[in-house]
Amino acid sequence: MAVNEAQIAFRTSKKLSDLKRHIEYRPDIDGLRAIAVLAVLIFHAFPTVLQGGFVGVDVFFVISGYLISKVIFSTLKKDSFSIADFYSRRIRRIFPALVTVLASCLIFGWNTMLADDLALLAKHVLGGAGFASNLVLWGEAGYFDKASELKPLLHLWSLGIEEQFYVVWPLLIWAAWRLRISLLLIVAGIGLASFAVNINWIHEYPTATFYSPLSRAWELIIGAGLACLTLNSRSSSISYNRYYTAVTEFFRAEKARSAISIIGLLFLVFAMLRIKDTLPFPGKWALLPTVGTFLLIAAGPVAWVNRVLLSSRPMIAIGLISFPLYLWHWPLLTFARSANPEGLPWTARVGILFASAVLATLTYLYIEKPFRSGSRTQLKVSVLCASMCAAVVVSVGILKSGGFASRYPEIIQRATEYDLDGYRAALRNRVCFMDIGQDASQYAPECIDKGDAPLWVLWGDSGAAAIYSGLRGLAERSGQFRLAQFTSSACPPMIGFEGGNPACRSNNQWTIEKISQQVPDTVILAGMWGEYQKDLLASTIKQIQSAGVRKIIILGPAPAWKDTPSRISFNLWSSDPLHRVPSERLDYAKYGMGHDFKVGQGLDSRTETAEKELRLVAKETGALYISVADKMCNDEGCLTRESASSGAAFYLDIVHFTPHGANFAMRAIASELGITTP
Prior knowledge:
Organism: Pseudomonas vancouverensis
Transmembrane segments: 30-47, 53-73, 94-113, 154-176, 183-203, 215-235, 256-273, 285-304, 316-336, 348-367, 379-399
Structural class: mainly alpha
Oligomer: single chain
Domain SGNH: 443-669
InterPro entries: Acyl_transf_3_dom, Acyltransferase_3, SGNH
Helix content: 55-70%
GO cellular component, one term: membrane
């Protein structure tokens, strides 16, 4: 259908001049848009095929900076620039497709999403409607943030950066023009300042650098700088065209321009093939796609790559629908992944991309184009603004209601509740559980109970921190021990371990030194063991034993799931024609992370494999091994809540216990711990 759209465009417009807006239409830039959006789509659907495809967003930034700035500069030159007209055109360009996608996501989410997921979607709709998605996602970033592939509007972060830029940029350029300040000087100064922020922040504040408009503005300004240089004007107050003329005279030949375009294309190809999402980005790596885009646009429409590849009809057709295609593809992928936590086959992903192209073409033809062209501009802007306001009102209502959990029965509500704040409080987040960026010096005094009862130390990662509330309940009910909690994000209790948290080594060393000082009666080593190699565990146990600790307990991992049990239960309930409440036990062979699942460098993360390895270490070192999975699972499946009539959810996500789950699990193993409770 994309190719048909190009044919429609060419039948209705034999001359390129018919496609002019404010500035001369360049079909090669639509082709460049096609490369950008195809790269993003391939990366999102098949990340291992094009690992750097996400740089397509950076290509869009440069294109947008060039085109919008050229419009501003051209209208300033003609003395026809109007702030109201500028934003009117932005509304008619952005709102039609955006409102359509936002409304569709809300409707689909209402019928398929859990309450907390729907509330989060509503929050992201508000971010998208206010062009602040990047700031919302920046604020959400953290260890317990929901997985990015489950956020249907995650991709709107880039639109937020663009529109935030265009709130300030036209006003700044207009003011510089009125004051007769060199626009090239303004462009260069702000661009260099933004790039400096990007370079200085990238290692210390990677999330902020990715989402902040301050560290991303330089990418749009690269395009703005090209627009400034290429503007035909005799007035040096608009641009210093004598510099550009000197350069273009040297490269005036078509062969030279073609060489520039080939170099630019090679920059893009290299970036898409070699850049990985594990590299610090944007940083210096973003120069590859942005400079490559700069060269391709600067080469002009007569250059070989631009004329033959980018200006081809299929590329133009995809470029014309690139904006709605970008908007549609990610929600379709996320909703499909939510419905199929075991993974989408490649055929399904291809089908989703095809469906995205169909929806994008329909959106472009019947929603976007009617609002962008024709008369009655003021009415169209009013309708679009009213539609966006309606989406905002609906989203506020959903957010305030917590996602309207009343849509389903009370027992399903309880089985699917998501209390992140309560969870964080229960594991004493940032107090006795050190989050990423915290070191052991920040453990609070209350992390060690006062009193005369034997001291038990809980040592491990977030999986260990999640069971703290269960151990606390045992301690209070039995009075047989007091408790110390030393837990750190992504840090298993193994001396010398180095992982994703740079503080692991020092935090674990601090803990073993504290154990040597306190000489506790018992040390409990706990964590999400399937995520780690365990070759350092035996030597750690020997160090604990040498400190004089009487008992060392290796606590087995909690059963882990391919998707959050609450979502699995909800999907089972909603897909059942009779809406019967699912069993408290889920089929672990089907839904559990116990079969055919590996992470990173061949590491076997299956629960059963982790248990075998841990039992062997316990036998070799004399530690006591206690299996949590044995108490949670039987031949019928593994528990996700206590009984058929009790809806209290045991899991916050795919592996972390809620306080309900922690209390149940610790009560179940109390006798093996040597604890008797009333």
